[in-house]
Amino acid sequence: MFNFEDANKQGKEAFDLMLKSYASMTKGFQAIASETAEFTKKSFDENVAHLDKLSKVKSMEAVFELQTNYAKSAYEAYVAEAQKIGEMYADLAKGAYKPYEAPVAKATAAAKAAVAA
């Protein structure tokens, strides 16, 4: 028979889990946005410094060498940052799912028990 008290309790638990998951996701997205903004600022500052160095160079060989070194370091920094952001997204997904682990495990165990019976 349908019990309103149990339904209300389960609804409240589900809502609480959703709020925990949402809070975790919000913190994760804020961290990612902050990290992206910091990387963008750092990259811009490095680009300005590189252009300043380029404007003071006298020979084409020095320009090519400077530009090659800058391109290499900029690429390496971008790859490192992309890996870091990727890890942050993975952590965000894990954090968002964490509140649901116990209820899903409980439901899975109940389903297995029902199938076995």
Let me know the largest β-sheet.
none
Mean model confidence by pLDDT = 90
Beta content comes to under 5%
Shape: elongated
> Which sequence of SSEs, written as H and E, runs from N to C?
HH
Low-confidence stretches: none
Using only CA atoms, what is the Rg? Answer: 26 Å
Through-space gap between termini: 21 Å
Number of strands: 0
* SS-based class: mainly alpha
Q: Helix tally?
A: 2
Structurally, how many domains make up the residues?
1
- As an assembly, this protein is single chain
* Helical content band: over 70%
Kindly describe this structure.
The structure is a single chain. The chain has 117 residues and is mainly alpha-helical. It is 94% helix and 0% strand. The chain has two helices and no strands. It has helices spanning 4-56, 60-116. Helix 1 (4-56) runs antiparallel to helix 2 (60-116). The longest helix is centred in the last third of the chain and has 57 residues, at 60-116. The radius of gyration is 26 Å and the shape is elongated.
